[in-house]
Amino acid sequence: TIALISCQHVETLEKDRGNPVYLGLNEHKLMCAKVGEQPALQPKEQDIMDLYDEPKPVKLFLFYHIQSGRSSTFESVAFPGWFIAVSSEGGCPVILTQELGLADTTDFELNTLS
């Protein structure tokens, strides 16, 4: 289960890039951090609502949610051009990639829970 929480400080971010959201995966929130030469996803234990209540956007934890029909992609705010993907090679199942729609799945269909 993924939680999407909108950023309340959209005026401080780039316009027309998508809806800036914080992502939570189960009890973790997802952040992007530089590991070696490239960014990687890292889960952090903390209530995702803590980010929502921050006085300014916390870019390492923000993603631009881009919707096209029923498909959604998530681009890192801190690392433009890097997208959340599900790896086709196994190992770490959720990764960041710069290759939209190639080897890894970058388009997701979201279903809401009532």
Automatic annotation (TrEMBL):
InterPro entries tied to this protein: IL-1_fam, IL1/FGF
Biological processes per GO annotation: cellular response to lipopolysaccharide; cytokine-mediated signaling pathway; inflammatory response to antigenic stimulus; positive regulation of gene expression
Per the UniProt record, the lineage of the source organism begins with: Eukaryota, Metazoa, Chordata, Craniata, Vertebrata
Q: Which Gene3D superfamilies match?
A: 2.80.10.50
UniProt keyword list: Secreted
Underlying gene: IL36A
A UniProt-annotated Pfam family: IL1
Q: What PANTHER family is this protein classified in?
A: INTERLEUKIN-1 FAMILY MEMBER, INTERLEUKIN-36 ALPHA
UniProt name for this protein: Interleukin-1
The listed locations are: Secreted
Family membership? Belongs to the IL-1 family.
